[in-house]
Amino acid sequence: MGKKEIDEYLQEGIYGAKEINPDEKRKYLGTFRERVLLALSKSQVRGEKGLAEMEEMIHQFSNTTILMNGNMSLRFFKSYRELANKHDVSYTYVSNREVESDYGLILAAKTAVDMEDILLANEEQKEQSSEKKSWWKRLLGL
User: Fold this and answer.
1) What is the DSSP letter of 90?
2) Range 19-47 average pLDDT
3) Does the pLDDT value for residue 47 go beyond 70?
4) Worst-scoring range by mean pLDDT, 26-35, 50-59, 75-84, 94-103?
5) Where is pLDDT greater, at 122 or 36?
6) How would you write 97-123 as a 3-class SS string?
7) Do 44 and 104 contact (CB within 8 A), yes or no?
8) Cβ-count burial of 142 within 10 angstroms (0-12 exposed, 13-18 middle, 19+ buried)?
9) Cα 97 to the chain's mean position, in Å?
C-alpha cells in the first residue's frame, strides 16, 4: 500500500466513509435534492397541509418513500402515516440531533426526478399573489 492509500484508509476509519453532498443530504432528511418530489415545512406538517398534493404525487410517481423529521413529535405524522399505509408507501423517521432541518416531511423518489418546484405554496403566498393581480385589474379598470 502506498502512503496515500494508507492516509485515505485511516481517514475513512476515523471519520467514516466519504459522502457526496453531505450538507444537501442533511437538509433534505437524508436524500438528495434531485430525488425530492414534495417538501413540507415543520409548520405545514403540524397543520396537516399538503395531504392532497402528496397523494397526487404518490399516484403520479409509483416508487416513492416518505422521510419524516424524527426531531418532531410523532403525533403530527399520523395522517401522513395513514396515507402511506393506504397507498403502500414506505416511510422512515430520520433523526439527526446534530443538524436541524427546516423540513418536517420529504416525499422522495427512489431515483432522480429533478422537480423544479418542490415546496408547497403557503396560503399567504397565494393570497398575496391574488391581491397583486386584483390591484392591477383595479388600476387598469378591469
Assistant:
1) E
2) 90
3) yes
4) 94-103
5) 36
6) CCCCCCEEEEEEECCCCCCCCCECCCH
7) yes
8) exposed
9) 17
| Total residues belonging to the chain | 142
> What residue spans define the domains of the chain?
22-120
Looking at the DSSP assignment, which residues form a beta bridge with residue 109? 64
The topology (CATH level 3) of 22-120 is 60s Ribosomal Protein L30; Chain: A; (3.30.1330)
- What does the block give as the cell for 6? 494508507
**Rounded to the nearest 5°, which phi and psi values hold at 39?**
-125, 125
- State the CB neighbour count (10 A cutoff) for residue 104: 23
Question: Strands 36-41 and 64-69: what pairing?
Answer: unpaired
Grid cell in block for residue 12: 475513512
